[in-house]
Amino acid sequence: MEQDMAGATRVVALGNDGDGIAETPAGRIFVPGAVPGDVVALGAAHGTHATLDRIITPGPDRVTPPCALFGQCGGCRVQQMALPALLAWKAGRVLDALHRAGFATIPTPATVQVAPQGRRRVDLAFRREGRRIVLGLHRRRGDVVDMTACTLLDPALFALLSPLRDMLHSLPGVHAGGDLQINMLDSGPDLLITMDGTPDANDRRILAQFSKAHGIPRISLGGTPPETLALNGPVFHHFDGVRVTPPPGAFLQPARRGEDAIRDAVLAALPTKGLKAGIIELYAGCGTLSFALAAHAKVLAYEGDRAALACLKQASGGTRVLPALRDLNRQPVMAAELAKAAAVVLDPPHAGAGAQMAQIVAGKPRHVIYVSCNPAALQRDLAPLQQLGYRLEHLTVIDQFLWSTEVEAVCVLKLPGAGKNHRR
């Protein structure tokens, strides 16, 4: 039953979902919109959550949200918190996960935070509302909010949204709405559209005209596999000077600065000796790290997505990247192979490395470089390595999802005193 909570309450922390945490006589209460250090009056409460009635005294890290849509658009959860404090909180989440994994000694993390308006990848929804198209992100557990302002997106990407609304409104194949993914590749915007109708010749004509008018090399229709609806030039992107042709909807790090920070941390962690044994890269994608790694050693690059693997294969000629198709959860790279590598580099999906982690544990490669996008999966995956005696040698925390609760980390682990398979 809802109840009113009167009186001043201090917010003492931030929860994993970005809600403030207040300790009250009734127990711990989560308060959306609150910042640690705030003294607040709580409104209606239900269970462990309460609304923020008013701020009595703002905390030292509270700021005015920079976006006019904050509180409506679901893209940014914590714009009311200063960016340096938010980065410190995200680093704390990673440190807490590593402590829970059992690491008693954790190096002071290097930290990187990207600048606003650097986001080059976005997944949007669009809906017909009367005579217009609403295009943007969903409000928290709600409808689509029209993205008329954004402090996250690359300005060139944001400028495309207005003409996109007009174009989507004119498509006969769009009945109620759909979804749109945009990747800003080096060749220009790459669009993947999912609509609730079947595109006909008129849709294709409209999309081809739009593609030409706005310098969009490719527009594809979502499906398995995606279908190219308009092609207006070559589609390409570069990873460390190597030109690749990403498939529609390919994974791309959301910010170039974030991608650079991950790559730099991984390269700095490579062993200085024994690289003739080669590097095993797991979850290689289209080659975000592969070609940079190949400047130092032969890279056996495993990827489970066929389209991404085809992209990697096409670009790998003349390099030391050896792509291989493998569903790493159903058919992990085995321990014996992992044990021979000079280093194992993995950038698993949000859920973590799954069955592949058991083979890493069994193989005991001396050097493991783990790129994480989820502290919970990081804790689960690294706990067995800690139990084997792996040391955490270096840690980099990267905030490239500004004003969100998402955080990435590069963890560098080494197994001291490894056996004969690891002698260099």
Automatic annotation (TrEMBL):
Gene Ontology BP, a term: methylation
A molecular function GO annotation: methyltransferase activity
Lineage of the species this protein comes from: Bacteria, Pseudomonadati, Pseudomonadota, Alphaproteobacteria, Acetobacterales
Entry protein name: Class I SAM-dependent RNA methyltransferase
Positions that bind S-adenosyl-L-methionine: Q253, Y283, E303, D347
Keywords in alphabetical order: 4Fe-4S, Iron, Iron-sulfur, Metal-binding, Methyltransferase, S-adenosyl-L-methionine, Transferase
Active-site residues per Swiss-Prot or TrEMBL entry: C373 (nucleophile)
Entry-linked Gene3D superfamilies: 2.40.50.1070, Nucleic acid-binding proteins, Vaccinia Virus protein VP39
InterPro entries: NA-bd_OB-fold, SAM-dependent_MTases_sf, U5_MeTrfase_fam
Top-level taxon: Bacteria
Family: Belongs to the class I-like SAM-binding methyltransferase superfamily. RNA M5U methyltransferase family.
